[in-house]
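STRUCTURE REQUEST FORM
Protein name: GPP34 family phosphoprotein
Source organism: Microbacterium yannicii
Requested output: structure tokens
Priority: standard
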Amino acid sequence: MSNDDPSKQPQDPASISAESDPAPGGALLAEDLLLMLFQPDSGTFSGENTLFYVLGGAVLAELAEHGDVEVGGTGMGGAVVRARETPPADDVLRAAWNYIAEKPRNVQTVLAAVGPPLRQPVLDRLIARGDLRRESRKMLGFLPSTVLQQVSERRNELVAEARAVLVDGAEPDPRTAALVALISASGSLPTLHREIPWTTPVIARAKHFERGEWGAEAAAAAITRTTTAVITNAIVAAAVLPRS
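Status: completed
Returned output:
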């Protein structure tokens, strides 16, 4: 790609950042994912050790769904991600697209590069939307600390949709299917056991979602299933490899 356009200039992965303003068209997949992983009782997020992989996976899945990137083919490290000509308007997606636009890279490389900076801007968006809020407290009566609290019902609605799919066998929409697949691949689904029972049938269904085995055979759904399966496979592989 030509580097005449400033939006396509090479970018150091460590410097990738994004604005915290919520996307005008609705929540990103990464926002819903992070919100589902929020634990209201403790004010923390499940799976912090692998969170950047799964957030990167959510951003990559959304870029692919919108047609901003292509995920497919094979290289030395597996499936390859290529940027298409038109960048996305959303700042979070644009930051990831800028990195991918430098040159084709395998999925794991993309996840490792675009994932680490995502937690803070995605969290800021959840707070700006009113889904979560920061609250100042004092530990031991005098040590200042900041905790997160759930505000809206959005998290409960997302978890209920995932439960309907995994427990009741409801037909998923592509977004819910992607959320289930990503959370399952991250290894964090058991942390939702109070809301989604961690049973043998649930485990089996979740693995089907990871492999893209869900939904009707429509062309658009098939593309989403295939892309999600490639990304979740990369997340699973990355999560079990020792980090250098």
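Reviewer notes: The first strand starts at residue 38 and ends at 39. The first helix runs from residue 29 to 36.
Form closed.
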